[in-house]
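# step 3/5: fold
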Amino acid sequence: MVDGLTFKTLYMKMILLPVLTVIVFLFGCNGLLHSDSVKPFIPGTYLASWKTSFSNAVDTMTITAVSENGSQGFLITRRTHL
């Protein structure tokens, strides 16, 4: 008995932190194993238009995948038409 704690209690406290660390690590790495379901929806053409007292404008943003599955990133092209 050390400071009112039994060996069993000390042992459980010493084991609890590493076990919780491993559990959190495994849950955190779970996202690395699954593919991102948003990537197929990202490529496309997006439009925004607005009108002010000075001008009419249309913004066009085209997003294309650099590689076939989007793993290398995306190419973003923005054009503003006044």
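# step 4/5: annotate
The mean pLDDT is 80.
# step 5/5: archive (pending)
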